[in-house]
What does this fold into?
Amino acid sequence: MNPVPTAENPFAGDNSGIQKRETAARWALRAGSYLVVLTTAAIMLHIFVKGAPVAFQSKWPFINTQFLTELPATLHVIEGKQGQHIETDVNGADAVKKQLGENFLSEKTISYSGGGILGPIVGTALLVVVSVSVALFLGVSCAIYLSEYAKKGKFLETVRLAILNLAGVPSVVFGLFGLGAFVLTAPKFVDVPAERSVFSIPLGFTTLSFEGWDTCVLSGGFTLAFVILPVIITASEQCLQAVPQGFRETSMALGATRWQTIRYSVLPFATPGILTSSILGIARAAGETAPIMFTAALAFKDKLPWQKDLPPLPADASIFAHWEQSVSRFLGIFTESVQALPYHIYTLAAKIPQNEYAERAQYGSVFVFLVLVATLAAASIWLRIHLRKKYKW
Amino acid sequence: MAPSESSSRPPLRSLIVRTRKRTVLGFDPQQIIKHFFGANASTAVIVLVLIMIFLVREGIDFLPTYRRELETYRKAGLELCDIADNPLKQQQDLTSVLRRAWAATTDPAAKEVLSDAEDTFDTAIEPAAEVLDELKELAKETKELAVEFHTLEEGRQQLLNAAAKTTDAAARADLLKEAEASKLEPVDFAERITPLLERRGELATKMHEYTVTLEEAVKAFPQNNVLVDQVRAAVPAHIAEIKAAAGRMQAWQWDKPVSIFSVIGAFFFGTEWITNSSWQDFYGFVPLLAGSVVIALIAVLIATPISVIAAIYTNQFATDREKELIKPVIEFIQAIPSVVLGFIGISLVGNLIKEVSEWGFLQWVPGFPIQERLNMFNAGCLLAFMAVPTMFSLSEDALNNVPRAYIDASDALGATKLQTVFRVIVPAGISGILSAILLGLGRVIGETMVVLLVAGNRIAIPDFSAGPGVIFQPAHTLTGIIAQELGEVSRGSSHWQALFMVGIVLFAISLLVNWCARAVARRFEPHKA
It folds into this structure.
């Protein structure tokens, strides 16, 4: 009467039906997820394969220094009768033509595709510096208020709602806002207010006139700052919240004021995280095109921002005059419009006819752009790890 | 001496408790710090309000400006000409179909008939077209006069204003003199419109003659030709429209005022966006909205399943190592600048789609083979790619927030993993997933560079009669039009104001989408265990 011992495990799932469906569904979900990963990898690979040959070269120093250190220029391609193609710039074109003599067949000019991309790189760097400084200051202060001071109420709700909505505003609308606010209306110290000034306040030695900053690094940087503000606020607040509550309580129990608590017991531990949060901000600020289209970016400029023609100083100029000129040269960097990498890519992709030479410039710029963004991100991550070692809890 | 020493020592309490607080200019420093941070926190609110103010400041004058332009359009008689012109323009389409039919036929006799028919079509319209051209000439002249008058008048007002401000008597006299010199007689619309009104009868007669000839010509058409049948089918509608136009011309009044509501209607329901035209600029919103909406729908339809699937897989099935791969990669997508993706759309995806559409075994797909490399589908694909990170991370958060007890209960009842996921976890997190989809939609509608580069930038309402194949047509979008045209217009012109109006609408749409996402998240919120 003993029960016959069964060889099968009664708890094993049956191998048909449900089990098969389960496995199939699992694989379908996995396929969907890896589709995204593979697409991303394919796009990156495509850019790398097409762009790396432009940025690097097989000879020492292996990096195409011309592409990285020259300003964009018009490319002249001269075709000879033996089928040779000679690439040169506007100054070299005549010499090459003379050299070819009888063999000269045709000449093509391709805008923006010659030279390098130093101008756009510098412009983007300036825009990022301005926007990230402004956004970090405003964003971290806002996050400190939200996390350390705010009590539940109307004001807090309004601020949170505003941040949410600000994050959803289309970037081109930020561009319109920047155009209306910074380019055309922002206040500025001038001697004589312009005609378009909205209103002006005389201050005796100068006038504060609401006539706008024109298209320049400042206008673009401030516009970008507001684009990335919600990202920075949200991320910084999370970092502040992550600092254990006990740190604050200990500090307060020792009789520290609220500000001392924040300054010595909260901020030092939140800084690594806040710096990481600025990675996202930098990447976004560097990548946005629409907000700077009308506020800062130029399609073409043959000078770097600091190469401005200032009147030469007399030989016996005082040290003060030299100093003054250096300062005005430095400040001039921020009141000039610049080329920016994303706008340069847009110009190359949309405004000029497509051919192999243009394509080379395009892929080169895109590649360098992505590498720069990735490097910035990597630097911030390194910084975070470095700072993390110092503070552990 | 000891007692006196101890009495001179201050009491312990006063050492510890400071009775008078330290102040800065009479304020408590702690309060100052608090308000400093509070003020910074209000930046977000202030910026939002400032965005509204500046958009409205530049855009609000659009309605009066456009109203004035439309009024001139009517009073100068341009509207009358367009009433006749729009149906007559269809003749060109018909002729071009006939020409194609002519090219396609091989039979010489049929070819002759067709070429005759084409000639008849062309000659029949000539008398009407001639009259119409003369009328157009007149109307345009009136309009140009009106525009000139308006420009001078505006300049004169500025001079007068400047004169009122100056304190210098001589300068004021100069300004006033200059203002007087630019004074112009206002255009007498009533007088200038008369020839148009008188000749509209003539135009109507010519148009009627044209329809009669057309009807005759159609009878002589050869049978059994697809293209010719197309023309034959289209002609009655064409004739009906011309007759209706003749009736409308008679009923048309040049001095009917343009109400502000009709201006609003002309903007929001206008089907044409025409700028820099020598005839008349129109700012109609529908073509742009249609492009934006179709592209956004394509993007959301593609991105939703992929990102929800990826979120479910990563959250529920993936091993830790897989998570370490999938999550950073998807977060990395967010860092890819949109202009780079737009460039990929031009250089890679466009050609890819075109090549795929030429494969023989895919010809059953509507719209294949495609005509344009840059089209709405291409833009939609790239935008879907951009929307994946937003949708993925928010959906994953939603799945993460499902209470542990739900899963335990489901497991305890003997449900398989798949049943737990799709019957318990996903339904419980559905509010978060829906709001993730909506936020993704908001991101897609507001995206600029990809659509500007990839959507093809043809300002026309997509031809929905093409069925699902419509997605392979080029289009223009709300965001793209601002980015493309704002750089080229002068401040304060009607075109500038129209673009800011589009900006206002975009801003409103983004607020609306955000509000919906929040409402959805609240509406379906699961009861917390």
About this structure: The mean pLDDT of chain A is 81.
